[in-house]
Design a protein that fits this description.
The protein is of the alpha/beta class and 372 residues long. It contains 17 helices and 13 strands. The chain has helices spanning 8-12, 16-31, 64-68, 70-77, 79-84, 116-119, 126-142, 151-161, 185-194, 215-223, 238-249, 267-273, 288-296, 308-312, 324-335, 338-352, 357-369; strands at 2-6, 36-40, 56-59, 89-92, 107-112, 145-148, 168-170, 202-205, 230-233, 256-259, 276-279, 300-303, 317-319. α2 crosses α17 (357-369), α9 (185-194) crosses α12 (267-273) and α10 packs across α15. The N and C termini lie close together (11 Å). 41% of the residues are buried.
Length: 372
């Protein structure tokens, strides 16, 4: 088959949607090498490295007009090249499909990640919500198949975007292969020295923004008088100022540390050395950092509700994302019970196998083949 992808975020986004795009193309290329994969990139100047196999081709705007208007090319102009490449399938990896793609003769698939901007409208501008609601509804209407990354996202797709349940398939996400590689003591020591890590610490990884709810961990440690150091990994945002203000007000500057320069290659060792990985987000479509932590063998505490039970499994622990006392009690429970911690590690690794690269590639290909 000849399969095209919306690769904007694969080439230009270092966070969740970019990781999903790169991982999807990588596993399909690896496990189904007889197909050819076309990566539609609206901007020729790349920000991120995407490993290109022999069965992958990058497609850019052909003419100066479209090169000068990459947004318009991605939303409409690429249809000509989709048709020209005689694609069997075009997969919009990030909740969008080009307007008019239904007239190209190409089968279409769209991945929906979440409806966070609908659930939490106060975090987004009215214009943003209006634009992306229209894009998502259109994609759900014209797509031949809709992939949702969790059962939670499936419910939201139906509720907020009017998606036809009969077109939806749930295909879970995976994580970067580096989290499945063995981690040597030497690697751990290098990372420990690089980031000045103590022998025992708690870890939280994710964008530092209001929805991620990082303040909850800080309050939990303060109110339970827990002295274990906390390391927060994420890119700084305006919310970081609020977080730092809270840390300072509570007198926890020596206990809570924010790392905003961690390289992806260092994350597996960082996870592996942490006593607990804590992910108190209010809502997500999937929560890839949870899977990363489980894969390397770190006990996970995350929020009750949302999709987290799907991602983290029955042997992770769940705390009320609005209750710092409950979070604090849950943290202490894991720290003080070695038997519980060890079981969370072993069962978490087993659960993570459900999201193997091969399984994800097979499930994606099953969706593609169902179109013919």
């Amino acid at each position: 088959m000849r399969i095209g992808f919306d690769a904007k975020r694969a080439f230009h986004n270092s966070r969740g949607l970019g990781n999903y795009s790169r991982h999807t193309v990588h596993v399909l290329s690896k496990y189904y090498p007889d197909n050819h994969y076309y990566l539609f990139n609206p901007k020729t100047k790349r920000k991120l490295h995407v490993e290109m196999s022999e069965n992958m081709t990058e497609i850019n705007p052909q003419h100066q007009f479209w090169r000068s208007l990459p947004y318009l090319w991605r939303s409409r102009g690429m249809n000509h090249q989709i048709k020209e490449q005689q694609l069997d399938i075009y997969h919009g990896l990030n909740q969008e499909l080009p307007y008019g793609i239904q007239h190209t003769g190409t089968k279409t698939v769209v991945t929906l990640h979440d409806a966070i901007f609908m659930r939490f409208p106060q975090l987004y501008s009215a214009s943003y919500r209006m634009l992306f609601t229209a894009k998502n509804k259109y994609a759900c209407k014209v797509a031949d198949k809709i992939i949702c990354i969790s059962e939670q996202t499936k419910r939201d797709a139906i509720t907020y975007f009017g998606a036809d349940e009969n077109k939806i398939e749930v295909v879970y996400q995976g994580c970067n292969v580096i989290f499945r590689d063995s981690i040597s003591d030497e690697q751990k020591e290098i990372v420990k020295q690089k980031y000045n890590l103590p022998p025992s610490f708690l870890l939280s990884v994710g964008a530092i923004e209001e929805r991620k709810n990082t303040k909850l961990i800080v309050k939990a440690l303060y109110h339970t008088k827990n002295q274990v150091p906390l390391f927060i990994v994420g890119k700084p945002t305006e919310y970081t100022k609020e977080l730092m203000q809270l840390i300072e007000e509570l007198g926890m500057l020596n206990q809570v540390h924010i790392l905003n320069n961690v390289e992806t290659e260092d994350l597996p060792a960082l996870y592996a050395m942490a006593k607990i990985f804590i992910y108190p987000s209010v809502f997500e479509g999937f929560g890839i950092p949870i899977l990363e932590a489980l894969t390397v063998g770190t006990p996970v505490i995350t929020s009750s509700g949302s999709c987290f039970e799907e991602t983290a499994g029955i042997h992770s622990l769940y705390a009320d994302p609005k209750d710092h006392e409950h979070m604090g009690e849950t943290i202490n429970r894991v720290l003080n019970d070695e038997k519980l911690s060890n079981k969370m590690i072993s069962e978490g690794k087993k659960h993570a196998l459900l999201f193997s690269d091969k399984s994800i590639a097979d499930n994606l290909m099953r969706v593609y083949e169902s179109l013919f």
